[in-house]
Design brief:
six-stranded mixed β-sheet, 5 helices, alpha+beta, globular, single chain, 161 residues
Length: 161
Protein backbone atom coordinates (compact mmCIF):
# COMPACT_ATOMS: atom_id res chain seq x y z
CA UNK A 1 0.00 0.00 0.00
CA UNK A 2 1.35 3.46 -0.90
CA UNK A 3 1.67 6.25 1.68
CA UNK A 4 -1.20 8.05 -0.08
CA UNK A 5 -3.47 5.00 0.12
CA UNK A 6 -2.65 4.58 3.81
CA UNK A 7 -3.35 8.27 4.42
CA UNK A 8 -6.73 8.13 2.68
CA UNK A 9 -7.74 4.95 4.49
CA UNK A 10 -6.80 6.45 7.86
CA UNK A 11 -8.81 9.60 7.12
CA UNK A 12 -11.76 7.54 5.90
CA UNK A 13 -11.70 5.33 9.00
CA UNK A 14 -11.50 8.27 11.38
CA UNK A 15 -14.35 10.04 9.59
CA UNK A 16 -16.50 6.90 9.50
CA UNK A 17 -16.41 6.68 13.30
CA UNK A 18 -18.69 9.71 13.47
CA UNK A 19 -16.66 10.89 16.47
CA UNK A 20 -14.11 13.04 14.67
CA UNK A 21 -13.50 16.75 15.02
CA UNK A 22 -13.22 18.26 11.52
CA UNK A 23 -9.62 19.42 11.87
CA UNK A 24 -7.67 17.91 14.75
CA UNK A 25 -8.90 14.31 14.71
CA UNK A 26 -7.11 13.81 11.40
CA UNK A 27 -3.71 15.07 12.63
CA UNK A 28 -2.25 11.55 13.13
CA UNK A 29 -2.99 10.53 9.54
CA UNK A 30 -1.44 13.76 8.24
CA UNK A 31 1.63 13.35 10.44
CA UNK A 32 2.07 9.77 9.23
CA UNK A 33 1.86 10.87 5.58
CA UNK A 34 4.30 13.76 6.01
CA UNK A 35 6.76 11.57 7.91
CA UNK A 36 6.59 8.84 5.27
CA UNK A 37 7.19 11.34 2.46
CA UNK A 38 9.82 13.13 4.57
CA UNK A 39 11.87 9.94 4.93
CA UNK A 40 12.58 10.08 1.21
CA UNK A 41 13.70 13.71 1.12
CA UNK A 42 17.28 14.94 1.42
CA UNK A 43 17.68 16.08 4.08
CA UNK A 44 14.99 14.01 5.69
CA UNK A 45 12.06 15.91 7.15
CA UNK A 46 10.04 14.99 10.22
CA UNK A 47 6.63 16.35 11.18
CA UNK A 48 5.81 17.37 14.73
CA UNK A 49 2.19 18.25 15.41
CA UNK A 50 1.20 20.98 17.92
CA UNK A 51 4.21 23.27 18.16
CA UNK A 52 4.88 25.57 21.07
CA UNK A 53 4.35 29.29 20.54
CA UNK A 54 7.62 30.88 19.44
CA UNK A 55 6.12 34.31 18.97
CA UNK A 56 3.71 33.80 16.09
CA UNK A 57 0.91 31.79 17.69
CA UNK A 58 0.43 28.04 17.74
CA UNK A 59 0.98 26.43 14.33
CA UNK A 60 -0.68 23.05 13.88
CA UNK A 61 2.73 21.54 13.19
CA UNK A 62 6.24 21.98 11.95
CA UNK A 63 8.71 20.27 9.66
CA UNK A 64 12.12 19.53 11.17
CA UNK A 65 15.40 18.20 9.80
CA UNK A 66 17.53 15.48 11.49
CA UNK A 67 20.09 17.95 12.82
CA UNK A 68 17.36 19.43 15.00
CA UNK A 69 17.13 16.28 17.11
CA UNK A 70 19.74 15.30 19.68
CA UNK A 71 20.84 11.75 20.32
CA UNK A 72 18.88 10.05 23.12
CA UNK A 73 20.54 10.60 26.49
CA UNK A 74 19.87 11.59 30.06
CA UNK A 75 20.48 15.26 29.36
CA UNK A 76 17.72 17.78 28.98
CA UNK A 77 16.20 18.01 25.50
CA UNK A 78 17.34 20.76 23.17
CA UNK A 79 15.68 24.11 23.84
CA UNK A 80 12.70 24.82 21.61
CA UNK A 81 13.68 25.56 18.06
CA UNK A 82 11.90 26.70 14.97
CA UNK A 83 11.13 24.06 12.36
CA UNK A 84 13.84 24.25 9.68
CA UNK A 85 11.38 23.41 6.90
CA UNK A 86 8.52 25.60 8.09
CA UNK A 87 5.22 25.54 9.94
CA UNK A 88 2.05 23.67 9.05
CA UNK A 89 -1.44 25.17 9.08
CA UNK A 90 -4.32 22.69 8.89
CA UNK A 91 -7.99 23.39 8.25
CA UNK A 92 -10.97 21.14 7.58
CA UNK A 93 -11.66 19.55 4.21
CA UNK A 94 -14.41 22.08 3.48
CA UNK A 95 -12.03 25.05 3.71
CA UNK A 96 -10.18 26.53 0.71
CA UNK A 97 -6.39 26.26 1.12
CA UNK A 98 -5.75 29.20 -1.23
CA UNK A 99 -8.00 31.52 0.80
CA UNK A 100 -6.38 30.31 4.04
CA UNK A 101 -2.94 31.04 2.54
CA UNK A 102 -3.89 34.71 2.14
CA UNK A 103 -5.15 35.06 5.71
CA UNK A 104 -3.72 36.85 8.74
CA UNK A 105 -2.85 33.60 10.58
CA UNK A 106 -0.68 32.23 7.76
CA UNK A 107 0.85 35.68 7.26
CA UNK A 108 1.97 35.66 10.91
CA UNK A 109 3.42 32.17 10.60
CA UNK A 110 5.20 33.14 7.38
CA UNK A 111 6.77 36.19 9.07
CA UNK A 112 8.23 33.90 11.74
CA UNK A 113 9.04 30.69 9.83
CA UNK A 114 9.37 31.84 6.18
CA UNK A 115 7.70 28.64 4.95
CA UNK A 116 4.18 27.47 5.69
CA UNK A 117 2.54 24.30 4.42
CA UNK A 118 -1.21 24.86 4.29
CA UNK A 119 -3.52 21.88 3.99
CA UNK A 120 -7.18 21.05 4.19
CA UNK A 121 -6.20 17.37 3.93
CA UNK A 122 -7.08 17.35 0.22
CA UNK A 123 -4.93 20.28 -0.93
CA UNK A 124 -1.33 20.99 0.00
CA UNK A 125 0.00 24.48 -0.65
CA UNK A 126 3.50 25.67 0.22
CA UNK A 127 3.98 29.37 0.88
CA UNK A 128 7.61 30.45 0.84
CA UNK A 129 9.34 33.52 -0.50
CA UNK A 130 10.03 34.87 -3.95
CA UNK A 131 13.31 36.33 -5.20
CA UNK A 132 12.46 39.63 -3.51
CA UNK A 133 11.84 37.97 -0.14
CA UNK A 134 8.06 38.41 -0.32
CA UNK A 135 5.49 35.68 0.40
CA UNK A 136 4.81 33.48 -2.63
CA UNK A 137 2.80 30.35 -3.30
CA UNK A 138 5.59 28.06 -4.44
CA UNK A 139 4.06 24.63 -4.93
CA UNK A 140 0.70 22.94 -4.62
CA UNK A 141 -0.75 19.48 -4.85
CA UNK A 142 -4.46 18.71 -5.06
CA UNK A 143 -5.98 15.30 -4.34
CA UNK A 144 -9.56 16.28 -5.24
CA UNK A 145 -11.38 19.36 -6.53
CA UNK A 146 -13.99 19.40 -3.78
CA UNK A 147 -14.66 18.06 -0.32
CA UNK A 148 -17.30 15.69 -1.71
CA UNK A 149 -14.95 14.35 -4.40
CA UNK A 150 -12.23 13.90 -1.79
CA UNK A 151 -14.37 11.84 0.59
CA UNK A 152 -15.70 9.81 -2.34
CA UNK A 153 -12.11 9.08 -3.40
CA UNK A 154 -11.18 8.14 0.17
CA UNK A 155 -13.69 5.30 -0.06
CA UNK A 156 -11.51 3.84 -2.84
CA UNK A 157 -7.97 5.08 -2.03
CA UNK A 158 -6.34 3.47 -5.05
CA UNK A 159 -8.37 5.76 -7.29
CA UNK A 160 -6.02 8.61 -6.33
CA UNK A 161 -2.71 6.72 -6.23
Amino acid sequence: MTPLETYLRELRDIRSSGAAVKETSFYPALSNLLNEVGRKLKPRVRCIINLADHGAGLPDGGLFTPDQFQKPSDVEPLPGQSPARGAIEVKSTKDDAWIIADGKQVSGYWEKYRQVLITNYRDFLLVGQDADGKPAKLESFRLADSEKAFWNAAIHPRSLS
